[in-house]
Amino acid sequence: MLAGIAEGLALADRARLQQKDVLEVLELTSMSSELVMQKGNAIIKSEFPPQQELKHMQKDLKLALNMAEGLEHPLPITAASNEVYKHAKRLGYGSHDSSAVYVRARF
C-alpha cells in the first residue's frame, strides 16, 4: 500500500500537482487512515525518521514472497513492490522510514 501511495504522490509531482492537495483528496476516501496520512505527510516533507525501517519492510516482503513460492501462489504486486523497496535500499535508504520508498518511486 505504501509503495502505491508513494507512486501516486510521485505522479502528482510529475504532473505539477500539489502533493498536499492529492493527500487531502485521499483523506476524503475510504483509503484514509492515520497511517496513510502520517506516511503521506512524511513523503511531502521529505522527512523519513524511522518508525519502520525500509530494510525491514523489504525483508517482510521477501518473506511473504518466499512463503508464496512454497505454496505455488503468485504475488505479482508484492513482487513488484519488493523490487521498488530493494532499489530504495540500494540507494542508501534502508535505515530510513519505509515511506522513503518515495525516493525510488520518483524515477
The CATH class designation is Mainly Alpha
According to CATH, the fold-level topology is: N-(1-d-carboxylethyl)-l-norvaline Dehydrogenase, domain 2
* Cα separation of the termini: 18 Å
Report low-confidence residues grouped into runs of 5 or more. none
Helical fraction equals 55-70%
Order of helices and strands: HHHHHH
Count of strand segments: 0
Secondary structure category: mainly alpha
3D shape: globular
Let me know the largest β-sheet: none
What CATH architecture would you give?
Answer: Orthogonal Bundle
The percentage of residues in β strands lies in: under 5%
Domain 3-hydroxyisobutyrate dehydrogenase-like NAD-binding: 2-102
Family: Belongs to the HIBADH-related family. NP60 subfamily.
Organism: Aedes aegypti
Protein name: 3-hydroxyisobutyrate dehydrogenase-like NAD-binding domain-containing protein
